[in-house]
Amino acid sequence: MSENENETTEETPDAPVEETAAEATPVEETDAVEAPAEPEAEAAADEPEAEAAEAAPPAVSQPKKKRKRLPRSLRPHKGGRTRERATERKPISREPKPEHERGRNQERRGVVVSDAMDKTIVVKVDVIKSHPRYKKVIRRSVKFHAHDEQNAAHIGDVVRIVETRPLSKTKRWRLAEVIEVAK
Prior knowledge:
CATH 2.40.50.140, 5 strands, five-stranded mixed barrel, elongated, alpha+beta, 183 residues
């Protein structure tokens, strides 16, 4: 009998707990039933209960499912302005080409330091500038490879070179004229 008494004592505490849970549920249902004046509110009230009932068990027993990413074409698009298509196309207007060459060609004046290569000379151009802050005169020199079609220039000549299209890896200048021949 002692075993039976233990069983009955175990059952009695469980019974009131089940009754309290059962009593709580009808109270919620009576609230929803008492306000049938608004059918939209009733439908809205039923939806959260259904969602809560579905969402609670999976969250407790299983890990949350990952949302799959949609392809870019199926993703929702942000609302923006859409440009209206033109009914007729505008004619292409072309301006006449200017008679002079495009842009302004740079010109430099320097001394030939090498003419060893065929149709190429190396011209040293001295640049004399004043320092922007300290006003000291600074002398710099730059060497340019220039194209000399007739091999007219020789070492020591003062020449004028002009900028041109790239002729090789290092040649972007060409000989315009020999100003002063070396002695």
